[in-house]
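Changelog excerpt

This revision adds worked examples to the README so contributors can see how folded entries look when concatenated. The first example is reproduced verbatim below.
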Amino acid sequence: MSTVHQPDLKDRPARLTVGVVGAGRVGPALAASLQLAGHRPVAVSGVSDASRRRAETMLPDVPLVPPAEVLQRADLVLLTVPDDVLPGLVAGLAETGAVRPGQLLVHTSGRFGAKVLDPALRAGALPLALHPAMTFTGTPVDVQRLAGCSFGVTAPEELRLAAEALVIEMGGEPEWISEQNRPLYHAALALGANHLVTLVAQSMELLRTAGVAAPDRMLGPLLGAALDNALRSGDAALTGPVARGDAGTVAAHVTELRKHAPQTVAGYLAMARATADRALAHGLLKPELAEDLLGVLADGGHAGQAGEGTDGTNGSDGTTGTEGNDR
């Protein structure tokens, strides 16, 4: 079992009682992680049957109580609710007097910084925004996966050390995000992670339609290599027909997608155009090949002869694979 580096005792916050408002996938995992660091979960609230079952699994023997009672019992409260719910929840808790002076109030929204907690701050709470940049399953495996996870952290300067200590105790790595940059930070993560899931799911469905029995086994090595190369090399990792300027191949793709999965066409065209723009900007796509390709994309894939490349082959270099050359 892997061990998580803990901060020195002098840097660690005092052992705290922990409460969770919103027993979705994130809150129970963070509370369980804090429990491993010596803190004590004392209360959790959940609305749905699924959230209550999750709390019972991840935080056994921790009582399920209403949100206001969670705040009465806990020194550190995790507000792990959907983004759109958070402002109203904070305002309501502050208005009803549930917030206690000196109480650490932590939300895990990527979109919001610490200012969304201003109503609680005015009531004397200590506001922290700690967003784990990870996908959660709602199972105990999430606790182990927090090791090495980056957290987007926003907090008042005087709470910086406390925020960092809590993140480190959960096994994470704090990354400071300014208040004004929180929405952009969150958009970047959603673009890279959430949309990736959609792309992979669509790709697997198309492979099944094409007769591939185990699309996950086929995609796994390809996607793993593509992700690794992209993280290491950025745009230089671009390969495939768009980066090569294979207008005929791209037109053939769109023709097949319209036939078998028309709901994927808009996304394919948008991503192909973005890929072409980046390939051009970085000198990966030759301008003389880009004209036909951009014409196909602008025409929605109707231009060109489906299945034929610009030189009469299945690609401009006479190949058919996704990496017909080193680009």
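The second example, added in the same revision:
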Amino acid sequence: MSEFRTETDSLGPVQVPADKYWGAQTQRSLTNFPIGWETMPQAVIRGLATVKLACARVNKANGDLEGRLADAIETAAKEVLAGQLDEHFPLVVWQTGSGTQSNMNMNEVLSNRAIELLGGERGSKDPVHPNDHVNRGQSSNDTFPTAMHVAGVTQLMDETLPALRHLRDALGAKAEAFKDVVTTGRTHLQDATPLTL
């Protein structure tokens, strides 16, 4: 297998590592914007995958996307959600405000993985095109903010709320353990009415 494959976009051909699912636009972003090291948070990547999965389902249900293509996109999106394709999202957070590069990175990864699932050749854009199929009916100006909202809610549900419940339970246990300990209250730098810990 060759070390690189040639992919094309509106600017022409570009060499992409053969073992990566991203395509021409992601590679151009890596080449043209080599700033920072802070990659896009996995929560946002998974948020984008969730949006793409939902769009594939809706486009299929509306008859706007052939079933086998939608199913392959959905399978690829589920692989992203499971963390199986994390290495294929190399872009840093320093990009346009609408997240166009990350949106295209997701489109290219899902397209190339779906192509493989359907028995095609990575980078061919056939039978699943990153724009025409994966991004059908979407705009980066809508997709990326939606993905950020999905990421925020997911992080709240998966990380923040469980941590707050743990804190609540720990404080409750300490309150119970020290309920009989009486100490001097303090207010305005003076002793006040006694209270329990």
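Reviewer comment on example two: DSSP finds six helices and four strands in the chain. Residues 4 and 17 are 4 Å apart (CA to CA).
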